[in-house]
């Protein structure tokens, strides 16, 4: 563990009061907390989701991937969101190799569709591109990467276009 | 004339609703002006509408309408009346339309204009969603884009029509419909074997349908809104490029107020504008889109207040009423006068007046929804039939303070959704209920965003009765049903 200045503290505060130091793992991987478990997107929308976790202030790249390498129309596949397989990244500590390779699309910092914003140590916001049709699984993995490595958070896409056998649950939609 | 305060009128409305729901043989109950010897009196009466008057000794004692009604909170008993009028009404479904032609040559102004493609959009023109039997199916349909409103949830401009025009007859989650498929959580099954589950999905088809419909599964997710209608385009084809219905897409259905078996007040759905085909500036205009097609009035209209709508009941000879719709074009004052009989086969010089503003009646929707109960409706009478299939969704406008130029103003009073084959009547939802229950405001030419902002969807365990719910501090609207796993629960 190492001492970091808390992102909410000014330098003068840190020198005057040791409690303003933040103790966290040096080069800790970005991690997601359990509060993201039930995050979903609506098929056909460009959804904005703020994801919570740790070590987001050191993130250097964010990849969108799909469960089982599924081609979600409008997201992966060819064109704007063409998929690449990545086995090495320049910022990985010690030149580590990713095996098996990560397959997906790197989104850029920003606020438009298909971008991400690092809000602080605990939060990052992803603006998902519109997914116009679904395959069998309808799951996107968000993979933030820093020098220490990566983890992923799965985003479920609602309303898969598959044949259904019953409608026991209720859909509610918000536009606030 | 007995005069009631707003609070007293609320008590009267509630009593009307209670009476209507207490006896299935009382088919239409409302507040009307009492008649005596065929002449209007000066009294407001709780009125039962019947097909024909019968001698008292031929009426079951349980069906006798009381002579007067005492309501706690009112100082005097309320008078009652029994009047003869239509008691059977139906949602203005496309099945009442004549056989469609193959081109526009049989049309004349003004109805030809109501059925054409309009950009920018405005109220009183045709619109539809997916054809009733799917893209490429054998059925086409027609309805009306009533006008534009502001969705106060996200402060965007939205188009307004009926749930039964663009919302696929979305029903409330706890409404069990058994016709044809007993035990199924059926949302709606119409005469063409299509089952709708959610306005948010076009490709969600019940597995037990005898006729599966992969034709619904086009590269679109939400219910689309087309202008002009599939009926007027003479095709159910999805098409591509500049052909077919996809080229007429102007929006996607954003939410529909679900129907239920009784005490319905509104049949409304809204759509977000979509710029896939047309740009925002082509779709919406701050100087044109608040207008009603062929209503000669150049001031953006407010929604009439509750008191203003209530006042129509006691306006001498009824208040002038106008509406513009896809099938009959402009109807009522002043729309009729400029056009006369040219192209107006059924409603030459039709003059409209509101004679009931809080009536309760049963409305036949067909399919497995069949007949459901409505309360607090505006009844409008015409000198000829004022509406027919395809006019559903029209905004109904009323002229207030007609004789006072400084105060005179047209305002939107209702949303047309039903009519009668038996007489010259149409029924509209009160716009105060539409606005308050669906969180809408009048659009008067403001420059606002279109489309969607922050959309979030939750799937809740089991079928729910609540039309709205607060989940995680946000307000959610019921939007159909699914077999997807639950992803959230109500705040409790």
What does this structure look like?
The complex is a heterodimer of chains A (176) and B (492). Chain A has one helix spanning 11-16; strands at residues 2-5, 21-24, 31-32, 40-42, 48-54, 61-66, 84-88, 97-109, 115-118, 123-127, 139-146, 149-150, 153-158, 169-174. Chain A has 176 residues and is mainly beta. In chain A, strands 3, 4, 5, 6, 7, 8, 9, 10, 11, 12 and 13 form an eleven-stranded mixed β-sheet that branches. In chain A, strands 1-2 form a two-stranded antiparallel ribbon. The model of chain A is unreliable at 160-165 (pLDDT under 50). The radius of gyration of chain B is 22 Å and the shape is globular. Helices cover 10% and strands 29% of the residues of chain B. Chain B has a domain at 6-85. In chain B, β17 and β18 (409-419) form a beta hairpin. Chain B is mainly β. Classes of the chains: A mainly beta (176), B mainly beta (492). At the A-B interface, β4 and β14 of A face β11, β21 and β23 of B. β14 of chain A pairs antiparallel with β21 (456-460) of chain B, so a sheet runs across the interface.
């Amino acid at each position: 563990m190492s001492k970091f200045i808390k992102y909410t503290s000014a330098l003068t505060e840190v020198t005057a009061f040791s409690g303003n130091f933040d103790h966290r793992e040096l080069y800790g991987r970005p991690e997601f907390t359990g509060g993201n478990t039930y995050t979903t997107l609506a098929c056909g929308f460009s959804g904005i989701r703020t994801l919570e976790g740790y070590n987001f202030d050191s993130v250097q790249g964010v990849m969108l991937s799909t469960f089982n390498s599924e081609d979600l129309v409008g997201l992966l596949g060819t064109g704007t969101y063409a998929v690449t397989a990545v086995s090495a990244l320049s910022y990985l500590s010690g030149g580590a190799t990713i095996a098996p390779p990560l397959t997906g699309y790197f989104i850029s910092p920003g606020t438009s569709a298909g971008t991400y914003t690092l809000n602080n140590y605990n939060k990052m916001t992803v603006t998902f591109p519109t997914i116009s049709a679904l395959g069998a699984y309808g799951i996107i993995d968000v993979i933030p990467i820093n020098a220490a490595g990566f983890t992923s958070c799965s985003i479920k896409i609602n309303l898969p276009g598959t044949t259904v056998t019953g409608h026991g649950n209720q859909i509610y939609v918000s536009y606030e | 004339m007995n005069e009631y305060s707003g609070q007293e009128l609320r008590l009267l409305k509630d009593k009307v609703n209670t009476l209507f729901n207490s006896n299935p043989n009382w088919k239409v109950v409302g507040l009307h002006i009492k008649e005596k010897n065929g002449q209007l009196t000066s009294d407001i009466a709780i009125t039962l509408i019947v097909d024909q008057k019968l001698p008292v000794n031929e009426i079951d004692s349980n069906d006798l309408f009381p002579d007067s009604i005492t309501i706690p909170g009112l100082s005097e008993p309320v008078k009652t009346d029994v009047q003869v009028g239509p008691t059977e009404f139906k949602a203005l479904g496309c099945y009442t339309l004549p056989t469609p032609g193959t081109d526009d040559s049989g049309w004349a102004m003004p109805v030809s204009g109501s059925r054409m493609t309009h950009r920018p959009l405005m109220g009183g023109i045709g619109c539809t969603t997916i054809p009733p039997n799917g893209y490429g199916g054998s059925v086409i349909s027609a309805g009306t884009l009533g006008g534009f409103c502001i969705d106060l949830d996200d402060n965007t401009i939205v188009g307004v029509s009926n749930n039964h025009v663009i919302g696929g007859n979305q029903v409330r989650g706890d409404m069990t419909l058994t016709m044809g498929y007993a035990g199924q959580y059926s949302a709606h099954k119409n005469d063409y074997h299509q089952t709708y589950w959610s306005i948010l999905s076009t490709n969600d088809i019940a597995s037990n349908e005898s006729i599966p419909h992969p034709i619904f599964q086009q590269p679109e997710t939400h219910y689309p809104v087309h202008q002009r209608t599939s009926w007027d385009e003479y095709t159910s084809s999805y098409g591509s490029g500049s052909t077919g219905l996809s080229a007429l897409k102007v929006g996607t259905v954003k939410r529909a107020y679900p129907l239920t078996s009784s005490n319905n007040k509104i049949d409304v759905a809204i759509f977000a504008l979509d710029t896939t085909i047309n740009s925002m500036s082509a779709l919406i205009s701050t100087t044109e889109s608040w207008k009603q097609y062929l209503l000669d009035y150049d001031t953006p209209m407010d929604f009439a207040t509750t008191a203003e709508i209530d006042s129509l009941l006691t306006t001498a000879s009824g208040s002038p009423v106008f509406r513009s719709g896809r099938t009959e074009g402009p109807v009522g004052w002043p729309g009729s006068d400029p056009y006369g009989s040219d192209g107006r086969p059924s409603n030459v010089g039709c003059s409209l007046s509101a004679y009931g503003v809080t009536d309760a009646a049963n409305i036949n929707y067909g399919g497995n929804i069949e007949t459901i109960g409505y309360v607090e409706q505006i009844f409008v009478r015409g000198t000829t039939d004022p509406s027919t299939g395809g006019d559903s969704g029209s905004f109904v406008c009323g002229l207030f303070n007609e004789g006072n130029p400084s105060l005179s103003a047209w305002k939107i009073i209702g949303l047309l959704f039903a009519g009668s084959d038996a007489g010259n009547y149409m029924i509209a939802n009160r716009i105060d209920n539409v606005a308050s229950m669906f969180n809408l405001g009048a659009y008067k030419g403001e420059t606002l965003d279109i489309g969607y902002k922050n959309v979030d969807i939750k799937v809740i365990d089991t079928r729910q009765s609540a039309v709205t719910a607060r989940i995680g501090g946000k307000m959610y609207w019921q939007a159909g049903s699914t077999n997807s796993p639950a992803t959230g629960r109500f705040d409790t």
